[in-house]
Amino acid sequence: MRTLIENVTVVFHDGSYEKNIYVSYDNDRFTYVGKDMPTGDFQRKINGSGKIMIPGLYNCHAHSPMTHFRGMAEDLPLDRWLNEAIFPAEDKLNGSLAYTGALLSCAEMIASGTVSMSDMYFFCPQIAEAVGKAGMKANISRCVVSFDENAEMKNDVRVLEATELFNSYHNAFDGRIKVDMSLHAEYTNTANSCRYVADLAAKLGCGMQVHLSETEKEHIEAKQRHGMTACELFEKTGVFDSVTNAAHCVWVEDGDIDIMAKKGVTVSHNPISNLKLGSGIAPLEKMINKGISVTLGTDGAASNNRLSVLNELNAAALIHRGVTKNTEFPSASVLLPMATVNGARSQMRDDCGMIKAGYKADFALIDAEKCHNVPSYSPVNTLLYTVYPTDVCLTVCDGITLYENGDFKTIDIEKLKYEMNNSISNFTEG
Question: pTM of the predicted model, to two decimals?
Answer without folding.
Answer: 0.97
